[in-house]
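Budget justification aside, the reviewers requested a transparent look at the raw inputs and outputs of the sequence design task funded under Objective 1. We therefore reproduce one unedited record. The lines immediately below are the structure tokens for a 276-residue chain.
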């Protein structure tokens, strides 16, 4: 039971401060990492002391492997031989999957702090509630309280026999393709959103929508909710706005068409390749 939760979220440190505590430090959207002969690691408390780094917006995010985890921002890039600042997409390729997920938690939290410095009702400055049980920003004037929030977006793999629907969004680089995705509208269920996005973007109807998995994404506060579905009827007709080309691809045709990564879009495509 002790290892049931790999990570324990917490507003305050769970353990005594330790040299091996993890510190997820960001300069804008880049994470600071140590690179010892090609082996990347997250900054530890001892590194912060040794390098004499000035960290602001410090937040405890919880406990991992009996160490406290913090996130924070630094003002200037530190130029040292063994220090690198990497975009999150590159962090996902260099680090342990779980530490990458904690990186995302840290970035989401820092984004929330930055986007909620002022009250949405009266415009006064907010402050962090002093609490062991909840993380909230409270308005200094009217008391309006804001908690970290998540904006859901769906992503869906649509199967037609032995083929998968892939689309090229005009924002994708290098003529790459992916499965269909889009933000959930206010008041919409995930299933309604899946049906709407596929119909709007490529003009087809689907059935048998099934949950696949989810993945947080910190730009600025998304949660991708993945589904699989089956083709029902209709001809592919790209919307021309976002989707400039879409088609049914067999297993052999997919390789090289998509960006292989830890993203849930990539996971859905790999699920199709493995199971069809
Ligand atoms: Zn207010």
């Amino acid at each position: 039971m002790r290892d049931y939760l790999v990570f324990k979220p917490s507003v305050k440190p769970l353990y005594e401060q330790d040299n091996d505590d993890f510190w997820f430090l960001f300069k804008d959207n880049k994470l600071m990492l140590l690179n010892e002969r090609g082996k990347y690691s997250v900054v530890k408390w001892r590194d912060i002391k040794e390098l004499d780094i000035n960290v602001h917006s410090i937040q405890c995010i919880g406990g991992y492997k009996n160490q406290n985890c913090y996130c924070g921002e630094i003002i200037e890039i530190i130029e040292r031989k063994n220090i690198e600042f990497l975009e999150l997409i590159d962090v996902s390729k260099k680090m342990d999957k779980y530490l990458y997920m904690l990186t995302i938690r840290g970035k989401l939290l820092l984004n929330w702090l930055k986007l909620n410095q002022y009250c949405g009702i009266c415009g006064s400055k907010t402050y962090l509630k002093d609490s062991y049980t909840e993380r909230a920003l409270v308005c200094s004037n009217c008391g309006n309280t804001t908690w970290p929030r998540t904006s859901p977006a769906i992503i869906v793999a649509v199967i037609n026999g032995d083929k998968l629907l892939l689309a090229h969004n005009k924002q994708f680089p290098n003529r790459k393709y992916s499965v269909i995705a889009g933000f959930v509208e206010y008041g919409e269920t995930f299933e309604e959103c899946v049906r709407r996005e596929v119909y709007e973007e490529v003009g087809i109807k689907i059935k048998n929508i099934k949950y696949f998995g989810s993945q947080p994404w910190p730009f600025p506060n998304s949660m991708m909710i993945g589904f699989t579905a089956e083709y029902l009827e209709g001809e592919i007709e790209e919307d021309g706005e976002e989707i400039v080309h879409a088609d049914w691809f067999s297993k052999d045709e997919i390789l090289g068409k998509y960006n292989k990564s830890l993203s849930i879009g990539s996971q859905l495509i790999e699920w199709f390749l493995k199971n069809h």
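Residues 7-114 form a domain with the Nucleoside Triphosphate Pyrophosphohydrolase fold (CATH 3.90.79.10). Residues 119, 121-122, 124, 139, 141-142, 144 surround zinc ion (CB under 6 Å). Computational costs for records of this kind are itemized in the attached budget.
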